[in-house]
Amino acid sequence: MFSRAQQNRIIVACLGGWTMDAFDFFVTAFALAGIARDFSTSLTTMTWAMSLPLATRIIGALVVGGLADTVGRKRVLVGNMLAFTLCELGACTAPSLPVFLMFRGLFGVVMGGEWGVCTAYALDNIPPARRGFVSGLLQGGYPMGYLLAAVLYGLSYDMMGWRGMYAVGVAVASAIVILRLSLPAPAPATGVARAERVDFRSGMRGHWSLLGFAVLFMSAGATFSHATQDLYPTLMRLERQMSVHQVATIAVAYNMGAVAGCICGGTLSQRFGRLRVVVRAAMAILCVLPFWMLSSGFIATLLSAVAMQFLVMCVYGVMPVYLNELAPQSIRSTFAGFVYQIGFLLTSANATLQAWLATHYVLPYSRVLAGTVLLSVMVFIFLLLRNPGAARGAPATAH
Hints:
It is found in: Membrane. The protein is mostly helical. 81% of the residues lie in helices and 0% in strands. The protein is built from 19 helices and no strands.
């Protein structure tokens, strides 16, 4: 086992990668209307810039995760962040919509590989007693990235535009590449011996029902997570007539709540168990949902959004350790990443479908998004309660 200082460096390097993935995704979300205007296309068409990465993430989960399980996680983590830097640069300098969308699709491959490898590498190299907290912290990288995108949008968008925001991502990602180059190589005892490594299909032998449950579970989770996030800035701007400054302020507040939710969910799961924490948080989402949908003023919107993101991320704070504990030992990087990303693949057209429903049927965005959240959370809870044995995973202190 590595020293505490080495463990912390690993956590920071992995946290930074997931943070930058979310930063890139939500830079696009905040700047969607501006990008559509610059490329002379509709907002509905432009939502493919968000749907494409969700669709291609599954490729990264399989390819990058498979490489990590075969050639080593540290090497793959460095290469994946380097690829992220190049995708960010490509989006920043794209001369046309097709080129921009191409780089968004490639970014999805990189993003898909990042989560599974990062969580497996980090959780493999820390003591079992820390895994709940670190799980929440790692998943907290997602709202941290959203938070950074919101701050940059609020402070600099009018000055630097969307291309400048992507340029900031290039600079930060380059620093993470350098940090990852300095990471220690995993100790032999923490990884799967080379002779024991198997491909994904062989590793899944005897575990297909577990995979089916995990995929459905993750698809429902991906639906309610992104329904509360992706088009919410658009809802605030178009439906609630809020200024750029107000949207950015609310986004900063609810992402601070989301970071707290991730850490809270992961930490509580170490004490009370993964299943109990996830089910309670999902039920609380249903209680907050009416207020989140109906709030209209600045303060009411801010408070309901903070409460919603805290609870959503309580659920997600358990995901890294939960999926890694469910995974077969020999394919942990691939399994966890595959399950996490296929959930987003199966729901990748949600933002486009929701935008179409709102515009085609002249429905309020709040009603469309709230209906999506309601249905998906109910499915999510049903799956957990119907499969308590599978959902419980390993004991809280086990790997």
